[in-house]
Amino acid sequence: MFYCFVVGAAWLLWHLVFGIRVVGRQYLPRDRGFVLAPNHISAIDPVFVVIARFWGRRMIILGKEEIFGVNPFFSWFFRHVGVVAIRRGAGETDVLDGVISQVQNGQGVLIFPEGTRSKTGEPGRLKSGAFVIASAAGVDMIPCRIIYRHTFMRLFSRVRVCFGPPIPAAALDLGEKKSTAKLRQNKQLLLAAWDELYQANRFA
After folding, report:
1. Are 141 and 130 in contact (CB under 8 A)?
2. C-alpha span between 38 and 113 (Å, rounded)
3. N or C: which end of the chain has fewer CB within 10 A?
């Protein structure tokens, strides 16, 4: 109930402040696990994505431990909508194994493949975590492109959150040996999907 209240209140506030437009919500699965993979520009990107999705079973949201020190309100919001902090080092493997198990059981996970915010507004180098989770869980990856009217987040600036057609689980399978060549191909699939979403929905 608290999750529904928090997301509903944030939906109202963020639509008033930012004028969010959502594109492609129909691509989000209702009845199976998935990996939701947005680009990353602002510390509040997770808020925009959660609000854009709005309905459905509560997602797992993976984020760096450092995001909890950005702002007291955002830290409070993140904790109450299910953000799981990733601590670099030995503990990360255990966290990912737990996430994979939950995704196999039908839960969605939101993870930013870049691992950190872009300083230019353009997609940065992609890390492997999102692709390893999708492959191990055997689920589709949903590309998501966040587009700010002025490249970066500003108060009262318009924002578009765009979901694209799923990248199928079969295409993301890395095999038992987790092929690095296949991993590179998968990263290119996501980058191409992000670019297509940007070209179709960018601000004039």
Report:
1. yes
2. 7
3. C
AA letter at 131: F
Q: Say whether 130 sits in a helix, a strand or coil.
A: helix
Classify residue 127 as exposed, middle or buried by CB count within 10 Å of its CB (0-12, 13-18, 19+). Answer: middle
Q: Which residues contact 61 (CB under 8 A, 6 or more apart)?
A: 46, 50, 78, 81, 82, 83, 84, 109, 110, 111
Nearest in space to 161 (alpha carbons), one of 173, 147, 180: 147
Question: What six digits make up the tokens of 132?
Answer: 């390893």
CA angle 14, 17, 18 (to 5 degrees): 75
d(CA 147, CA 201): 8
- Which residues are bridge partners to 112 per DSSP? none
Distance CA 204, CA 196 (A): 15
162 CB contacts (<8 Å, ≥6 apart)?
22, 23, 24, 144, 145, 146, 147, 197, 198, 200, 201
- The Cα 161–Cα 4 span in angstroms is 20
Rounded Cα–Cα distance for residues 193 and 165 (Å)? 8
pLDDT tens column, 172-198: 999 888 889 999 999 999 999 999 999
pLDDT digits (tens, 9 = 90+) for 40-68: 998 788 888 988 887 777 888 887 776 66
- Beta bridge pairs of residue 84: 62
More confident residue, 157 or 4: 157
